[in-house]
Amino acid sequence: AALTVRFLTRRFIGEYGDMEFIYSHNLTVDGREVLFHIWDVPNSQEQTEEGSSEEKRIQWADSFVLVYSICDRASFNILPLKIQFIKATKEGQSQEKVPIVIVGNKRDLHHQRVVSSEEGRLLALSLDCGFYEVSAAE
């Protein structure tokens, strides 16, 4: 949520609840007006949800940004299963590759880091995803 709010408003807010939101935002990219719809879903530690609210979100989306905290190993460890679920759900219907980016957040908290940059890069490479490390706070 912090990363989404930072993208939309250029401000950092540190505390969020476990709420799901859909945001719309216009942005000019390469001279073209692009309308973003962002479905910001808090991370659940469960695997994939039964039934299909998660499947519905996946069908709704055109691309995915999965954010983990570099200070939280569990948030990183669930990424492979989430990505496999996304690919099975999206790519099973078409031959097109689904755009997925893995983002390690809280780079400013390097003293609390438990997931190395190299681990993030290697995971993204092995799953054919993009990779960035950022700080929503900075």
From TrEMBL:
Q: What is its EC number?
A: 3.6.5.2
Q: Which InterPro entries match?
A: P-loop_NTPase (IPR027417), Ras-related_GTPase (IPR051065), Small_GTPase (IPR001806)
Question: Pfam families under this entry?
Answer: Ras
Q: From the UniProt record, list the reaction(s) this protein catalyses.
A: GTP + H2O = GDP + phosphate + H(+)
The reply on keyword Transmembrane helix is no
Family note = Belongs to the small GTPase superfamily. Ras family.
Instruction: Return the protein name.
Output: small monomeric GTPase
State the taxonomy lineage: Eukaryota, Metazoa, Chordata, Craniata, Vertebrata
